[in-house]
Please model this.
Amino acid sequence: MTYDSFCAAAALTELEGLIGAHVGQVHQPDRLAVVVTFTGGSPSPDEQREHRSRRLWLFQSDPRWTRAHEITFRAKSEGPPPGFCMLLRKHLGGARLAAVEQPGFDRILRLTFRSGEERWTLVHEIMGRHSNLLLLDEHEVILGAVKQIPPSQSSVRAVLPGIPYSAPPGQRVDPRSLAVEQLRAVLAGVVTPAEITARLNGWGAFAAREALAEAVMSVNAGLAEAVLARMDRVARRDFDPKVWLDDAGQPTGFWAFPSLQLGSEGARSYRTVSRACEAYFSYQENNAAADALRKSLLGQLARAIRTAQVQLAEANAALDGLDQTEALRITGE
Model:
């Protein structure tokens, strides 16, 4: 399960509580992850209990773990800060978060910062292997990006300093702007999840299957009503983040809402989508590190076994040679 537009919308709700906060620090723990420390702003539900004044927000562009949410701790940075980190510190250090938005209900978060008369926009495109984090000036010109993409790598959309920013291609209709009659027209004849994702911005395969399941279970409502009901919950900020656990108590999935597909058994509720994401992804990342170490050790063991087998074959051949030598000596005598 991936971090989709509904999770981004839930994260946006948390970011709205930070409007007016200032950027204290910026770190880049690894090549594709940026952590921004905010001070001030409205406290989160956890902060009201913990009395914390600093909020750490992770903007991860690694295609395996791409996401944006608050974190309780950050990984230690190794080595000198990369150039993009220094760029963010230069422009955003001390700046105030002025606005946040999710354009088109896509997997894109835009954070606008101000310092005096100056303005910058941090754009996080949460799109799998195409994920990126960009800093724009007030004229929407790219100042830098965590992943620079020259024209030689993409003829559709280059991402380099000095180039005007353009939204990712493939934009569809924003479902937040549609009434039920309009949704019925847009979704006319739709029977598969792929058809929903092809017509509505921000609706991935998982959310589309949820809408179809809700339409089947409803007696008096159809697909358009199911989509509208979900979008209404987004508009009302009525999120209910869940993490699903296996029999061993390990996270297997997460979403910003309960799921008909996954059921309620083994589902754990969280106060915010940030806490749900942190619970899920911390396990996935740690488990991936353990898997990588296990594969490395198994590879070393396999090489050691092959070497031992070769040495054993050579030793057996040498022993056979000794036996032949003794037989020749006896024959000669």
In short: The radius of gyration is 27 Å. The CA atoms of residues 302 and 308 lie 10 Å apart. The longest strand covers residues 22-30.
